[in-house]
């Protein structure tokens, strides 16, 4: 076996290992997304801008794309096919660029995004009395987090003619006069930040693996191309 063949073999198996880790990382992200979706099933009628629901959907999409990309990378490495490797490289490059862009947008425009999300939730509150599903979701949120309204309990005054829903007070209270003071949006957001710090660390590790897999796929593609040229 020549030096170039040994090098290609080494890169091939390194890329395969990185892609297996990448695929397993995708499974992990998807699993956390499923867990978050089920744990927030009681809030499913709320707009997707609700913090924990938007995070669950983001993890499901990211996990699914990561799993498919990792599978393509493993297949391309084992088969040593330039077409699969090129497809893997393009998808992974787009994925990395999308992730970087998303992180920058969230970091730069987080206040505007929060404001827009809160506006959508307040708009949804207007059908509280006429939509049983939405009513149940809001009641479950307020009971679970011991909060009231989106940004303040006064959010309900316009909706319920100056009164508060019973879920804004302790359980067993028929008529709520002085509800919880903490806003639900901030409570849910804080709950999310408190419960998934390990997911954020995991996401950074997956990002490092993505970059390494990107480099290895490019290197392997070039080596296969050179080997084919040498054979010709």
Automatic annotation (TrEMBL):
<feature type="transmembrane region" description="Helical">
    <location>
        <begin position="85"/>
        <end position="109"/>
    </location>
</feature>
<feature type="transmembrane region" description="Helical">
    <location>
        <begin position="12"/>
        <end position="38"/>
    </location>
</feature>
<keyword id="KW-0812">Transmembrane</keyword>
<keyword id="KW-0472">Membrane</keyword>
<keyword id="KW-1133">Transmembrane helix</keyword>
<feature type="transmembrane region" description="Helical">
    <location>
        <begin position="199"/>
        <end position="222"/>
    </location>
</feature>
<dbReference type="Pfam" id="PF00335">
    <property type="entry name" value="Tetraspanin"/>
</dbReference>
<dbReference type="InterPro" id="IPR018499">
    <property type="entry name" value="Tetraspanin/Peripherin"/>
</dbReference>
<protein>
    <recommendedName>
        <fullName>Tetraspanin</fullName>
    </recommendedName>
</protein>
<dbReference type="InterPro" id="IPR000301">
    <property type="entry name" value="Tetraspanin_animals"/>
</dbReference>
<keyword id="KW-1015">Disulfide bond</keyword>
<dbReference type="InterPro" id="IPR018503">
    <property type="entry name" value="Tetraspanin_CS"/>
</dbReference>
<comment type="similarity">
    <text>Belongs to the tetraspanin (TM4SF) family.</text>
</comment>
<feature type="disulfide bond">
    <location>
        <begin position="148"/>
        <end position="169"/>
    </location>
</feature>
<dbReference type="InterPro" id="IPR008952">
    <property type="entry name" value="Tetraspanin_EC2_sf"/>
</dbReference>
<feature type="transmembrane region" description="Helical">
    <location>
        <begin position="58"/>
        <end position="78"/>
    </location>
</feature>
<dbReference type="GO" id="GO:0005886">
    <property type="term" value="C:plasma membrane"/>
</dbReference>
């Amino acid at each position: 076996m020549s030096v170039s063949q040994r090098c290609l073999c080494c890169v091939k198996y390194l890329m395969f290992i990185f892609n297996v880790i990448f695929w397993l990382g995708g499974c992990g992200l998807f699993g956390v997304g499923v867990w978050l979706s089920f744990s927030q099933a009681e809030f499913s009628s709320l707009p997707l801008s609700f913090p924990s629901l938007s995070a669950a959907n983001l993890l499901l999409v990211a996990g699914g794309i990561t799993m498919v990309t990792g599978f393509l990378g493993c297949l391309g490495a084992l088969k040593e096919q330039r077409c699969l490797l090129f497809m893997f490289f393009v998808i992974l490059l787009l994925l990395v660029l999308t992730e970087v862009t998303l992180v920058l947008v969230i970091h730069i425009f987080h206040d505007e995004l929060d404001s827009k999300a809160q506006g959508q939730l307040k708009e949804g509150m207007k059908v509280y009395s006429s939509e049983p599903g939405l009513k149940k979701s809001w009641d479950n949120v307020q009971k679970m987090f011991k909060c009231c309204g989106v940004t303040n309990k006064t959010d309900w005054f316009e909706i319920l003619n100056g009164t508060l829903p019973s879920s804004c007070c302790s359980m067993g209270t028929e008529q709520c006069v002085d509800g919880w003071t903490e806003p639900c949006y901030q409570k849910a957001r804080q709950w999310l930040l408190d419960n998934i710090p390990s997911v954020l660390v995991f996401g950074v590790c997956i990002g490092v693996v993505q970059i390494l897999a990107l480099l290895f796929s490019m290197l392997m593609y070039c080596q296969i191309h050179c080997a084919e040229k040498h054979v010709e």
